[in-house]
Amino acid sequence: MSRLYQHGTLAMLMGKQMQGTITVAELRQQGDTGIGTIDGLDGEVIILAGEVYQAQSDGQVNHITDPDTLLPFASVHFDAPTQKLPFSSVTFSNLSAQLKTAQLQQVFAAIKFHGDFSHMHVRIAPKQVPPYPSLLSVAENQPEFEAENISGTVVGYFAPQIFNGPTAAGWHVHFLSDDHQFAGHILDFSAEQVTGDLQIFDEFVQHLPIDNPDFRQMTLDFDGLIAGIEASEGGRK
């Protein structure tokens, strides 16, 4: 059995709940690979081989070593690949097409691959303070960064359309360069010399911060929720 563990929901972030509710130490018990964000929506998190990295909105990349660091939202799994990727070159726009034979439409899957990227385009959420805005309003003013001819690793997830809300339907992927100097939430890329794996999950665990009073009292405006999530993710599926 393979399991994808997710703490928090994207709908929760849309509902202005950005306070950290799980520690890095607790998250590592659930997986050694994944993505997320830090307390206050502070940047983009990439987890590889149990090591946690944070891309800040000024472009700096930090190695997070404090096990008590809090996160409001994260998805993790234990890396146990199902199959090798069937391509050696890929772009963000044709990623799903190149994986058509994997039949991902109705399943959760993780992707992790290394490559030489002729182009990498990312965005990084800036840190927010209470009272928190919605994820959509943050997404409207996020720093974006681009790099050419950079090597690194892409990691992230595919989720079925029916789960849009708890998470982001389609692809949600982050990037970390080999030198740990460039990272973020991917908006676009073009890669060559790709080597990596796909992992299909038969279990999706949704963990909620039930001991957090702000979460328990949250109300959601469902009008435009899905469109808002898609906009915050970059609008590309």
TrEMBL record:
GO terms for biological process: acetoin biosynthetic process. Keywords: Acetoin biosynthesis, Decarboxylase, Lyase. One of its GO terms (molecular function) is acetolactate decarboxylase activity. SUPFAM superfamilies: AF0104/ALDC/Ptd012-like. Its EC number is 4.1.1.5. Belongs to the alpha-acetolactate decarboxylase family. Gene3D superfamilies: Hypothetical protein, similar to alpha- acetolactate decarboxylase, domain 2 (3.30.1330.80). Pfam families: AAL_decarboxy (PF03306). Signal peptide: none annotated. Pathway: Polyol metabolism; (R,R)-butane-2,3-diol biosynthesis; (R,R)-butane-2,3-diol from pyruvate: step 2/3. It catalyses: (2S)-2-acetolactate + H(+) = (R)-acetoin + CO2. It comes from the Bacteria. The gene is budA. This is Alpha-acetolactate decarboxylase.
